[in-house]
Amino acid sequence: MPKLTKKFVDALQHTSGRDMFAWDTEVRGFGIRVKPSGTKTFLIQYRNAERRTRRYVIGQYGILTVERARDLAQKKLASVIDGGDPSEERHAARDGLTVAEICDWYLEEAEAGRLLGRNRRPIKASSVAGDRSRIEQHIKPLVGTRLVSHLKLGDIEALQADIAAGKSARKKTCGRGGKTSGGAGVAGRAISTLRSLLNHARRHGMIEQSPANGVRVIASDRLKRHLSVGEVRHLGKIMTQMEREGEHPTGLAAIRAMLLTGFRRMEVLAMRKEWIEADDNCVAFPETKSGAQMRAAGDDAVIHLLRQAQRSRSAFVFPADWGDGHFVGVVRVLDRVCARAGLEDVTPHVLRHTFASIAASLGFSELTIAGLLGHGPRGVTQRYVHLDAALVIAADQVAAEIARLLDGGEIMTMKEVKRRRFSEMYASLQQ
Predict the structure, then answer these.
(1) Of the candidates 72, 86, 88, which has an alpha carbon nearest to the alpha carbon of residue 27?
(2) What region holds the Core-binding (CB) domain (predicted)?
């Protein structure tokens, strides 16, 4: 068989019913295959480290010249001498897992409780639900079909930039809001989700390495909106008016509870009656975003929760209108109240920020405010001894101030607030 040349390859004729091969005399293992259809394809044939015969297609004649195909063949055959297996490598790449497949694996495992989060406990259902939303709305549409093995760090950061620019924005089919938008916050959370699930896949042997290692997650502006004392007072006035007009009482009560306690939306809505420990001014949450916690609550907050709890036989403080579940419509009620009050950009989290803001205005430290909001590791197992008396006092004073504003009390200056606090402390010492 002569050396493969353009003249020789052009002269090759196909044979009906079977492939025909011609091998080069200069580079052993380099050849060309002629299909019955007449298509001519360059390939190499070799034995791998296990002494098994393999074939590797280099490319089609016409797209590749004979000289170019021979150069590529020499490189691939040289890799075989070093222990490589071009055919196996190609199959591995072709059959590799896509981003969408890894995402589906992660969601299945996480929802079954087989993956552990940072606290060495199964990932919470609420966290998985958030991850699913980001996966379905941002990650899959943009890189779902990409092979994980082919992704580079630059691809991950490009994905982040695309999400921030709104390339994955589309109309939502469920949940709150009408459209998923871009922005730094959305992009950062999506990339954090992708990085986390890829690390889970690596630990469980699904992939060899994570292409997201070392990615710089874009910084986002934290929500800074909070209600001023004047806005809290106005909100309370509007809530009183709307309650008389027939606005949903449970929704209004939940809004007041969030303001008086600084608790998260679902901590309030899913609160069970047996969690309220009135004698110790606290609510014992068996599970929160930061784990099980004892959270301090002021007198005004506890009284409000107990009154609300007495309104039904439900296990929940804020029961649903029907069924055995808890109330879920607080956002709609809050939107209606704020529309009536002329207040914009108010969410349940803004109410939490408002509690913190008023606590700060009363002079409490960041550490105390963090404890009131549940940012510290305050477990239920710590019970009463470790529920600092200072936190109970702080919660009581913040709740009293917010209740006074909601009920139409006059706005006090900082000097008046401090004078009142000093008088109360002095009176307590005299008892």
Answers:
(1) 72
(2) 97-202
Q: What is the CATH number of domain 99-203?
A: 1.10.150
pLDDT in tens, 140-186: 999 999 989 889 999 999 999 999 998 888 765 544 444 556 688 88
What is the spatial distance between Cα 293 and Cα 376, in angstroms, rounded to a whole number? 9
Is the separation of the CB atoms in 163 and 226 below 8 Å? no
Fold of 229-430: hpI Integrase; Chain A (1.10.443)
The residues spanned by each domain of the chain are: 6-94, 99-203, 229-430
Instruction: Decide if 283 contacts 262 (C-beta within 8 A).
Output: no
Q: Rounded CA gap, 153 and 139, in Å? A: 15
Q: Tell me, which fold does domain 6-94 have in CATH?
A: Double Stranded RNA Binding Domain (3.30.160)
Q: At 346, list the tokens.
A: 């108010």
User: What's the chain's length in residues?
Assistant: 431
Q: Compute the distance between CA of residue 86 and CA of residue 73 in angstroms, rounded to an integer.
A: 11
User: Which of 135, 145, 119 has its CA nearest to residue 195?
Assistant: 135
> pLDDT tens across 290-325, in order?
778 889 999 999 999 999 999 999 999 999 999 999
